[in-house]
Structures are given as C-alpha cells and as structure tokens.
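Example with several molecule types.
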Amino acid sequence: MALIVQKYGGTSVGSIERIKNVAQRVARFKAQGHQVVVVVSAMTGETNRLIGLAKEIQSHPDPREMDVLVSTGEQVTIALLSMALMEMGLKAKSYTGAQVRILTDAAHTKARILSIDEENLRRDLDGGHVVVVAGFQGVDEKGNITTLGRGGSDTTGVALAAALKADECQIYTDVDGVYTTDPRIVPEARKLKTITFEEMLEMASLGSKVLQIRAVEFAGKYKVKLRVLSSFEEEGEGTLITFEEDTMEQPIISGIAFNRDEAKVTVLGVPDRPGIAYAILGPVADANIDVDMIIQNVGADGTTTDFTFTVHRNEFTRAMGILKDVQSTIGAREVKGDDKTAKVSLVGVGMRSHSGIASNMFKTLAAEGINIQMISTSEIKISVVIDEKYLELAVRVLHKAFNLEQAA
Amino acid sequence: MALIVQKYGGTSVGSIERIKNVAQRVARFKAQGHQVVVVVSAMTGETNRLIGLAKEIQSHPDPREMDVLVSTGEQVTIALLSMALMEMGLKAKSYTGAQVRILTDAAHTKARILSIDEENLRRDLDGGHVVVVAGFQGVDEKGNITTLGRGGSDTTGVALAAALKADECQIYTDVDGVYTTDPRIVPEARKLKTITFEEMLEMASLGSKVLQIRAVEFAGKYKVKLRVLSSFEEEGEGTLITFEEDTMEQPIISGIAFNRDEAKVTVLGVPDRPGIAYAILGPVADANIDVDMIIQNVGADGTTTDFTFTVHRNEFTRAMGILKDVQSTIGAREVKGDDKTAKVSLVGVGMRSHSGIASNMFKTLAAEGINIQMISTSEIKISVVIDEKYLELAVRVLHKAFNLEQAA
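Resulting structure tokens for the full complex:
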C-alpha cells in the first residue's frame, strides 16, 4: 500500500465527463489498495471567465478580492469530483485550501506556502476516504483567501506530497510526459523515461510548460518523487523526475527548451563603474518586472560598457519606458530594444562532464546562418537568444545534431 | 449616522451592470454618513447552474459537497461587489460565511444559524469599510461549509442585523414592497406602507415570496427593523415590517396570500383512537416531508374518523406512496389524494377584534360557486383549500369584498 498524491489540471477536469474519468482512474488506484489524495484545478476556462468578470469592473482588480473570486473555480471542482467518487461507491471528502489549512504568506495572487496541517487529511485517509483538495489556493494568517498564482495547483500537489510524506506525486496533464523538445516542432522528439530535477528545473523555467517551476523546486527541496503522466491515456509510465543519484549514467543532453516570450533590452555606452548594474536594474525591479538573462560586456573604448537583459515580452514596453527615463541619469549613450527574439537552451546534467557541447551548438547554428545575439550558460544548460524567426529551425537542427531522437 | 444592513437578492446582482448599480446605491448611503453591511446572493441562475452540474453526476448529490459547490455562487458576488465599491473609491472588504464565522448546525443544505462573530465586521465598519458578506452560507463547528437553504440570504441579512444591533435591515428585491396580494392577479392590489411581523409571517409562509419566513421569524425574535424595497427604483420607502405596537389602528385584513403548491392527501375511515394521528403522520415526517394543513373530522359512523393533510406538490407522489404502505396497518378504509388544489388565505392582525370575517369570506366564495375543501384558521388568518382552477377568481373577489384596494 502506498500513499499517492495525484494532481489533475484544468483540461483533465474540463467537463463532467472528464471529471468522471478522473474518478475512475482514482478508483483503480484505490482498488489496488493505495491511499489517494487528489488535487484539482478549476475546470478549463473557468478561471479566465472569472477574471473576465472582474475586469469588467476594475481594470486592475483588487488582489484580495481577486483571490476570493478565482478560488471558487477549484472549489467547484473539488465538490463535483467528490460527488463523482461517491457515485462510484467510494468514500470521498473535499477540502478547500482554507479547510486543509494550507497556510501561505499574504501576497495575494502569488502567495507562497508556509505550512500545511496534514492531520485531518491523514485521519480521513486512514478512514478510507479519498481526499480531494483544491489546488492553487490557501489562506493567510488572518484567514484571508490567497492564491498561489497560475499553475499553483502543481505546487499544492507537491507540497501536500511533502507534508504527507507521500510515496509519489503524480501530475496528470494533457501530455504523456516530458519530451526531448516540443513534438509539434520536432516530430522525432522522444519521451524521456526519467529526467533529473535539475534538468527539469531548467526545462520548466525555460518554457517547457509541462510543470510549474515552483512545483519542481518544492519537489527537489523535499525530495518528493514526481511523475508526469497523461490523464487521457489508460496506461503509460509518463516521465519520472529523479534525483541524479538514481541513474548510473546520464545522457549528455536531455532536452531542448525554448521560449518565445523573450524581449531584449540593451543599454549601450554606460560608464563602467561600480553600481551601474544596480542603477539600470533597480528601477526595473522596483516596477515588478522580472528579468531573465543579464549580460554585461566591456565596451569598445574600455571606459564604457554595454548592458543587455531580457524580460517577458508583455513587459517590454514598460521596461523600455523605464530605461528611457533613467537613460540620462545613468549617462547611457543609447537604449535599444527588440521584442522579436527567442531563447533556445540545451539542458543536461551530463554536460558537466563533457566539453565541446557549446562549440557543437554554435557550429550547428552557424551552419544554418543563425546569428547568436546573447549567450548564457549554467552548469547544466547553454542558452542562446536568436531572432524569433529562426526558432523552429534552430530547435530542429540542434535536436538532430545531439542525436536526441535516439535513447541514450 | 446609522448602521444599516442591506440584502440584495440574485436578480439585483444578476449582471455586472446590476452589481455596479448596487455599488452606487451603497455609495449613496455611505455618503449620508451611514455604516453599511451588504449581504448578497449568487447572481441569478448561478445556483441553478451549479445544481445542474451536480445532478449530472449524482441524482441525489451528497449534501456536504453540495454546500461546498453552491456556496461558491455568493463568494463570486461578494468579490465582484467589493471590487465595484472600490472602483467607486470606497473601502470595501468581502467575507464568506466561514470568514465572518457564521456558525451553524451541521444540517447541510438547510443549516440553522447558531451564532455570529461580529467583532471583525465591526472593526472594519469602524475603519470606514463597506463590509460585503456572502448570504446563504455558514460553517459548522468542524469547519465544514454549510448553506441555509434557498432564500437563506434573507436570514443572513437579518441575523447580521441582529448581531450588529443594526438600525435597520433593508431587503432589496425585484418588487417594491409587500402588496395586499399579487398584482399580477389583482391589478388593483395596493402596496402596504407597513405590515406587522405576525402578518408578514403568515404572508411569507402562505406563499407570498417577498421574504423568507425564517428571516421574518428571526427579525421578530430579535426585534430587527425590517424593510422590503426594490433594487430597481431610485426612490421609494418600500414596506416597513413593524411590531404591532407601532401603529395605533390596524386594518382588519392586510392582505391575501395564496399558494399553488399544495397537494391534499385524505385518509378515510380510520379508527378514532388515541395515537392515530401519529400513526398517519409519523411515517410522513420520517420521510422528511413537510406537512402544512392538518384537519381531522369525526366520521359519519362515530367510530372512525377522516384525516386530511396537505403537502408540497413535489412531495405528493412520495406521500401517497407512504400512506398506501401504512393503510392496512392503521386500518384505514381508503387513501385519496388531489394535487390540483390551491390555498387562499386572508391575513390581518385586526381580525382578532372583528367577527364575521370568516362568514364574509365563505359567502363571497359561495357566490362564485367555489367549493371550499378544507378550512384552517389562526388568530390572524383564515385559509381555505379550493380547486386550483378557481384560485385567481377567488383572490380577485376576496380582494374586492374586503376593500383592499383602498388604504385603511
């Protein structure tokens, strides 16, 4: 007997029919003698419908009330799924985030989980219940409803698995696992049986939307065994996210992630003196704009420097406005921007022990005439920013160059 | 400065536009220096939509999960109304039933309020906030979400007014007050400026759907000043529900209530012995069927009796089935039923001190050839059950016979 936490996303519970299918899958696990906690999202479209209502009233809806509003989405799903489980003869009980007491900080619409009271859940599980928990939501110290931000249901699933010391956390989604890259771009893309946490972190943060990055971080921190599976297939092992020690030998490159949402801002000819990076990025951070890649090069004349960073494309106009405002203060010659860029990244823990990955990557792109605008590396990834129009081509040729269509 | 509780029903908050209208009305009261607590229902149609989803899964949805499901309806409205108030520059804060801590018993889908923590609300009011509370819902001792049953939002409004010792509880609805009878049937029906609690109780319980009977009971018990108003009119005093002492002289008859939902069950020729009423009604009560009128007559032979009662038309088939089952046990000769009946009632506290009301009523109906099937009286009402097809006629001729179109 194992304790399994299963998380089903919005499309997996997007209709009454699909909710019944989820109930059947849960029933099969119960029949095998497992204890099951199910975490669910709002039915597809529901969260957007609610946000739409709010925006008819306030262009920037009040965050506290927004959380009160959108948290109803998951509350509807937990009730319906519990009913579906009971209709199959199982014992089931629903919990909102507040009822579990998933305690979060008070940062409405993007709260972070502080602690989880697992006592009641455990008693219900021991009593033979399937426990159905609303994902994405919690409650702050004062009893205000909070939400974890988009995709937060994954985080709820992992956090519950950690709190309950579950044997496995299964994330059911509309894909059947993690692929070497997006199969819509590279038909030969191959499903990975395993991927390490570190790789998954890079894949998730680089735009492979299978799993929320916060959920992966959480799983890594609490050593939660995480598996990605399809809720539309009866069978299949999905992809297991492992700790590096689990496998004897790692492939050099596990996958290729990419991101179309990058926009590039370049500040040219700023004085090369201490504090200049803060002078540039401080105002951007103050405006709550997340910055992804940051690169600083020595300028041609040796006394000035060029500074480039990327932001989400939605924030491009705001970021450019801020930089134009501070341009004269910081003494920059010019501020330029480009929102027609994309990022492509090779990811793999095997990279650590192999040289020549970067040069192979650059050679492959050069052979296709693809200009590299920015380069950034970490221990287990190499990212390049290129013209958006070459994105698909770059991913395809790199996938082939590193033989990703063949199992390692 | 007064403390006012305002309750808005589903049609009053049935669209974003209407929610904005409610916000404007609240703002006018705030501008006059009043403290305002607003209680809202789910947007029209939302509760039925949710119940529809549940019934696609379970023909008899689990009550606990049903409450989790339908309570989302009001939660959506409190968030949207709070946003609309903030958009107008007011301070506003929403509360679910659980967040107020409207403590109820554990009778899911028909819970009763046990107590209300008014501390937080009062602090917010003193801080200048409009407090927006979800009607219809509460929480039991164990933290389970409960609902008060259909129309329970009125009860929430009155209970909050009682707990906060509000100066007035205003119930906004789609009619502009309480009428002598339904204006759709009698165009001359007149709006009452005041009505006593006792009369309102009878009117509410007899099918005049302006106010929930439980809300009226609650208001009477805690001496809450209650007013019914239209949310679609800018001006208007509505109808004030008063304590009898408030007015010097009462009209003899205040209004005519009626109810199309009555079905009649008659048990003929049962032995006239102690315990027979319980033998007949016990099984009906055990099946959770509410019984309205009960009449027992001595039978023709002196040793048996005839027993008649009315139930809601929706329960007619079940009630008949139960009686057929127990017929032989109780030794009844026959069980008969009729679900094509209606009840018409004259209501008025002035009735107490005037004789001849009943005979005038019976004479009026007889003159139209309307047969009276059952009669039941209380201190302030006379009810008759008649063939459903005469209902409108009966209400019209009685309204005229008692001069209700003229102010007393």
